[in-house]
Amino acid sequence: MTLAERVLRFIPWLMGVLFLAGLVHLTSILVMPRLAPHTAFLRLEQRTALASLSLLEPISAQNIIAPFEDPAMALAICRFDLTQGPLHVRGRFETGQLTLLSLHDRFGEVFHSMSERSAIRGGIDLVILTPAQLAMLEAYDKEDELPSELRVSAHSPRGFVLLRAFAPQAGDLIRAQERLNAITCTTDQIGR
Amino acid sequence: MTIVLKLLLALCVSLVLGLGMSFYALNQGYGFGAIQLGAWTAWPRTGSPDADPYARAVLARSGEIPLGLGEGLSLIARRDDSGRELSPSCSYLIKGHVPKARAWSLILTDQQGRLIATDLGRSGFTSAEVVRDEENNLTIRVAREVRSGNWLAVDGQTPFVLVLKLYDTITRSNLSALEPADLPVIQRESCT
Known about the structure:
The complex is a heterodimer.
Chain A: H1 3-35, H2 40-47, E1 53-55, E2 73-81, E3 87-92, E4 99-105, E5 110-115, E6 123-129, H3 131-140, E7 150-153, E8 158-166, H4 173-181, E9 184-187
Parallel strand pairs in A: 6-7
Antiparallel strand pairs in A: 1-2, 2-8, 3-6, 3-9, 4-5, 4-8
Chain B: H1 3-26, E1 35-37, E2 40-42, H2 53-62, E3 72-77, E4 90-96, E5 103-110, E6 124-126, E7 138-143, E8 150-153, E9 160-167, E10 185-191
Parallel strand pairs in B: 7-8
Antiparallel strand pairs in B: 1-2, 2-3, 3-9, 4-7, 4-10, 5-6, 5-9
């Protein structure tokens, strides 16, 4: 066999290997959010209760809640499982005090986020539901009235609400935590 | 070599190559859409529903909880303005402006995003804490030994990165209008 023949016979193998390697690469990237062992959701699942507000310990070198998280933020979590009913987040926001809210599904997608400045009437009244629950709830709505709460539908039934309250100076952290503690998370029943 | 052995070998090579590519890709920031401004890099799509699969995979692996679109924007610097990796045995001068935001934090973490324990007990400055000059320029010094003014301590051993978090900012949707001069420069001063 000449060298040219050897090379020619090698080409289909090379193409096959490259194709398969590409497939392995893409698959491993796509399944990562579902299979990674230390996702934010899995870490928080161990330290927070379901459907109630859990205040997290301040971030320090000893207490890392998530990488690159700001120690000037007080953090609270409401973990939800919408198969048990929609999650209702309620509370008052102190005006001018930076407070951030974001909704995360268990696979890491941020499906809603806001600051307290965009809150309605100085407070938060937010319901997270599945698309089916949203349809059901809308069936109960009075036709001539707009719902008083903000409704957000989630792609995945499990996830968490993250509340961050800014403490401008280190001494403000307790006050920031108190601001978060005034917010409640409860499971709603539809149709009452 | 029989065909079975050849196939098996090709399969192994594909697996190693595919997973190798994934491993490499996951260590290169947060996927596509990076915006470089001087020493700082931002990935404005992470934390939004448009985040690409690479960004999702990176976040799932590290457990990081990104800032949502409505919360703010995070910028990271792993190198100084001359492109040299930030070194724990050098001192740095961080100087200049911070883009418009309701509040911001500049924090110093190790390369995986964990806070570094130092005797100073401070891992960053917030917009309320930092002392500025008459022209509203900020100057922060990163060094192992005590510095006057705004000083962030490093332990002299742990490689570190700097993270700038802009909270409740329009900068995120307006990032293309930002110039490197709108962000603080990071200058290396001296090394031991």
